[in-house]
Amino acid sequence: MKVRFILTLAFVLLLAFASVPAFASESVQLQVNGDVVSPPCVSLVDSVSMIPLDAYVGLAGADVHWNSDSEFVITENGVNLSMTLGKKGASLDGRALTLPQAPYKTNDVVFIPLRAVSEAFGFVVDWDGEQRLVTLTRSETRDGMTVSDLLAKSTEASKAFNTYTMEGLINIDMDVEAEGEAVGEVPQNMTSKLSGQIQNEPFSVYMKQTIEPGLVDPETGEKIPEMVIETFMNQEKMYMKLPEQEDWIVQDLPFSPEFWKQQQDIQSDPLKTAQLMKEMGILLNYGNDVTVNDKDYYVVNATLDMDKFKEGYQQLLQQVLQGMPQGEYEQKIIQEVFENALLDYSYTDLINKETLISDIIYFDAQLQINMEIPRDEEQDASALQKFNINMKMKGNFTITDLGAPFNAPDVSNAKKLEIAESETQSTPNN
Length: 430
Known about the structure:
Layout: H1 2-16, E1 28-32, E2 35-45, E3 48-52, H2 53-60, E4 63-66, E5 71-76, E6 79-84, E7 89-92, E8 95-98, E9 104-106, E10 109-113, H3 114-120, E11 124-128, E12 133-137, H4 147-158, E13 163-178, E14 181-182, E15 189-199, E16 204-212, E17 227-234, E18 237-241, E19 249-252, H5 257-268, H6 270-279, E20 282-286, E21 290-292, E22 295-304, H7 306-322, H8 328-340, E23 341-352, E24 358-372, E25 386-400, E26 415-416
Parallel strand pairs: 1-12, 19-26
Antiparallel strand pairs: 1-2, 2-3, 3-10, 4-5, 5-6, 6-7, 7-8, 9-10, 11-12, 13-14, 13-15, 13-25, 15-16, 16-17, 17-18, 18-19, 20-22, 21-22, 22-23, 23-24, 24-25
Helix pairs in contact: 1-8, 4-6, 5-6, 7-8
């Protein structure tokens, strides 16, 4: 029970600290508009810099369409570059183009020549052979606004509304192994629906999460019913109502009031927000404008530099751990999970051209954890020691009802969360 509880908690934390594209490390560094892309994703093939297609599409804010198993088109700002695996011949808006190296596919990853493709879409490309560094530079705007300008204006526009409603849908595919064997009771295909409200001042969040586990009861053969989890937070307390529980439980937030005040100050100041995003390794770029439900949107893509992100969140993670009721051993496991996680995370923000409000957010994440659990002195020798998690998440959030009254649940009779001593002791194979 102890290990299972800890792993669940650690898993939740990882979802909160989701991170970055995980490509294999290479000896060539890439810098885009002054930001180093990490981990390195560029390799040299016959002195030509090659980059994974998905990596380039992400950092450039482009779209890719496959016409066949070998032919594909990269599109950005109305410019189309057509390429074929194994061929140097390409087409840029109908004009013939010869690539220095043919695109190729290995281990299900497609590689394209970085300089030729980048220059086709307006990047200035430099190569520093001594540092083995490729630099891409481009100033991209929409209606005279850089990405930073747009986000600053969006922040200002959202400040006019103290409350908003959030709806979300998340699809999760997950494989979990313990000691090299699949854990059958862990849901492999889940759907999570979120619905709730956020209030900025005073800070309050209410969320209702409905989970469809995607599991069948082995004894009855019937589908396991959905689970409903409710969460309510303010600046001091966190309240939860778990499945098949009538009463709310309450615990102190693992953050001080000063921390919440600091976060609110950052969110209300576009310059502080931009600086924080840069420090956390958040790489931003414009995508192609889109129209959804007859509304026109600017598209902002974001990926995270895993190394910078983990470094920046270490302090925050320590604040979380210090506020938890668990002991040093449990905190050590959570820290180990965080450090051993490999995440590929990106999101796309659709900003309404008329209101400048972020109406829709799409995200795509992959998580992999392979680690050994450090032994506790009191732990049984047969207790779980190794586990592997592979998870894919894809979903979206929509923002509506700006300025609507905040409806907080009645938590006046909430009971304090207490972990019984019997539940904090290790049991074999949990």
